[in-house]
Amino acid sequence: MRRLLVCAALFAGAQPAFAQGGWTGTARASVNVGTQLDTARLSESITLEKYVEPTPITAELPKKSLTFFDGGIAVRLAGSLGVGVAISYLTDTDSAAVAADIPHPFFFKRPRRISGQVANVLRKELATHINAVYVIASRRIDLTLSGGASLFSVEQDFVTDVTFTETYPYDTASFATAALTRATASKTGFNAGADVTWKIADTWGIGGLLRYSRADVPFTAGGLDVGTVEAGGLQAGAGLRLIF
Amino acid sequence: MRISSRTAFALCVAAIALGTTMTTRGQQPLAQSVSASGATLPAWASRVEDMLRDGRLDLAAIQADTMIGGRTHERLAQRHEGLPVFGAEIIRQMNGPAVVSIFGRIFETVSLATTTPALDAGAAAALAEAAAGPGASAGEPELGIRPTADGFLLVYRVVVRSPFDIRRYDVNALTGAIAGSLSELRHQSTPVVGKGIGVLSDEKKISTRQSTAGFEAVDLLRPSIGFTLDFGGSIGRLNNFLQTFSIFPSDTAFNSSTTWTDGAVVDGHVYEGVVYDYYFKRFGRRGLDDRNTAVTSVVHPLARSLAFQVSPSTRGTFINNAFYIHPGLMFYGDGDGIFFDYFAGGLDVVAHELTHGVTSFTSDLEYQDEPGALNEAFSDIMGTGAEFFHFTPGQGPQKGPNFLLAEDITLVSPGFIRSLQSPMAAGDPDHYSLRQFIGTPTDNGGVHVNSTIVGHAFFLSVAGGTNRVSGISVQGIGTANIDRMERIFYRAFTFLMGPLSQFIDARAATLQAASDLFGAGSNERAQIQQAWTAVGVQ
């Protein structure tokens, strides 16, 4: 949230330089690097069957801000309106917390709680944003407003089983490891954003991006319905701007 | 054989701390009861050492004490001129090099005209087979000395399998006469004719083994592998088994899916595992022999539908009965459906039978007269303990946990075969003065009937109450603490007693066990002492 406030302050600070006008060029491009705040990584709950009883398993990776890379181009159609396409990408690998209630092999309703960590849980997110673009230009600063559809392609590791150790009399069990299954799924969502460009020269400048995008992506992994994954989030970034 | 002149010697050095003596009751009047700790211990410890040195005692086995660290229990078998004196054994409890207690029964003197047999082992086996009847097959005879009320006999001891019995014969090694015989089958109940309903149908998990075509009732999850065989009620299969003692893979109970529907198979198999759990968790014991020996249970030995096509004796043995064959083989009858349901359906029944195995591997209480009643009583007590261990009060179709025996599979009034709480409710004695059949062939000298005197003492020591005959009240340690009394009895019966122990020895052993586990001044010791007094064993 603090980074978000910093970005907002940045835009607020740039506001006094405006002398409002229209978009006069034919196209503009941007390259950004930044942070996607509170990115969902893994929050999974599945139920398998072990020892003839349901066996609930959960896997959790807390939300985290991740670095993303973004590039885009917008073409003017008429006046200050145009269309644009932008692609953003992020990847992350981390350890997830796994927990399960393993049924007792001899008795019903005597589950044994196990928990542990599974390493190298992958999350990749590639989003293609197709937007309508509106540019408010001035001599030094341009403000670009955009919104449209986002096609998310998410590659995600899911916990699809757990292995555990147990010895007679089996009153306790210990987590050994978890089986990971990698799956990919796509879903269309939406995005809305604003871009501020400080024109250092007529053809280039630097700028800042603030974008919110979101889709709930349904997954199956290893034959299991592992639920939906939140894709996207609030992105704040900065980078190079080219003006044509 | 002529026994040299000797005086019947029946001393019981009971009353542990006081070292007083009293006369032993019951059979085996020649046996000297050893019950030594405290002041009486040094003299006996020295004497035992002397007997070990001169060969009159032989170290037969050492048991690690699973209840008190550092303790061991040595089973010292009496020998005479190198031959075993059958049943004569004392148990020396050791704490490192120090002797803690000595219990058991041995013979002060043993004298025989000769220790050279007139018969060879083969001839003895043939005589035993002839005595057992057609289809009998003898095992390897062992030459030894049989104590009797009149003296000692040189005998061959041989186990003979016949179509419907497994019996131990003592063949006089000089004359060839049958000096005695005893069935190795440990009966849960006497034969009863009746009709009834199906087995209990509560849902439970069953540990099985996968095979190429389905699943087999083989428990591989416990350290002791448990096999459950299904004879399918076939009289031919049972006969074949009794004659050859052979078990085939095809006997193993089988199911094509993981959902088993044969209640006798399920209960026999599952409860065998529960009893293993009970012994392990309560006492640290690993199976019948404490070495995880495999256990085999047989269900449907004879079909219920044959109940009225076979003789009453056969029905009473293989249908309306459950029994144990040493080492590690259990039979659970189908019940005739009138008096009894499937015997495997009673956890206390299963625990009772398996406890016969524990006894055979430990005290080996002779299955006759008072030692036999102690054998039965210990099985009843452990059967009751297993119920309290496994069942939640008020839940499930079982009527337990309680102090009744076989209440889950008894279909007729009074709804159980024995009661530790009120033995008279099933016509069994609740006081030592009422014991029956001692010294007679009936019920092997009343092994089932008289067991309730001991079982009632256990009940009183736990739940409290007033003995009907003596009028003596016992406060009890409370049912919530039943595990403590179970531990006392387990310790006494598996570590501190021998094959010829009498009721009075059981009293002394349980007091010693209570002192060992909870202290000489403990309430547990006081309650069991009062309970024994209440039932007239003092």
Helices and strands, with pairings:
The complex is a heterodimer of chains A (244) and B (538).
Chain A: H1 2-14, E1 27-39, E2 42-50, E3 53-61, E4 64-78, E5 81-102, E6 112-136, E7 141-165, E8 174-199, E9 204-221, E10 224-243
Antiparallel strand pairs in A: 1-4, 1-10, 2-3, 3-5, 4-5, 5-6, 6-7, 7-8, 8-9, 9-10
Chain B: E1 11-13, E2 21-23, E3 31-36, H1 41-53, E4 57-64, E5 71-80, E6 83-95, E7 98-107, H2 121-132, E8 137-138, E9 142-148, E10 151-162, E11 165-172, E12 178-183, E13 186-187, E14 209-210, E15 215-216, E16 218-219, E17 226-230, H3 235-244, E18 254-255, H4 263-283, E19 295-299, H5 312-318, E20 322-325, E21 329-332, H6 347-361, H7 369-390, E22 404-405, E23 418-419, H8 443-446, H9 451-463, E24 465-466, E25 473-474, H10 482-496, H11 503-518, H12 523-534
The strand line-up of the biggest sheet of chain A is 1-4-5-6-7-8-9-10
The profile of the biggest β sheet of chain B is:
6 strands, mixed
In whole angstroms, the N-to-C terminal distance of chain B is 37 Å
Total number of helices of chain A = 1
Net shape of chain A = elongated
CA-atom Rg of chain A in angstroms: 23 Å
How far from one another are the termini of chain A? 34 Å
Give the mean pLDDT of chain A.
Answer: 90
CATH architecture of chain A: Beta Barrel
Secondary structure tally: strands of chain B: 25
Indicate the percent of residues in helices of chain A: under 10%
CATH class category name of the largest domain in chain B: Mainly Alpha
Sheet having the most strands of chain A: 8 strands, antiparallel, barrel
Rg over C-alpha atoms of chain B, rounded to the nearest angstrom: 23 Å
Percent of residues of chain B in beta strands? 15-25%
Structural class by sheet pairing and helices of chain A? mainly beta
> So what's the overall shape of chain B?
globular
CATH superfamily of the largest domain in chain B: Neutral Protease Domain 2
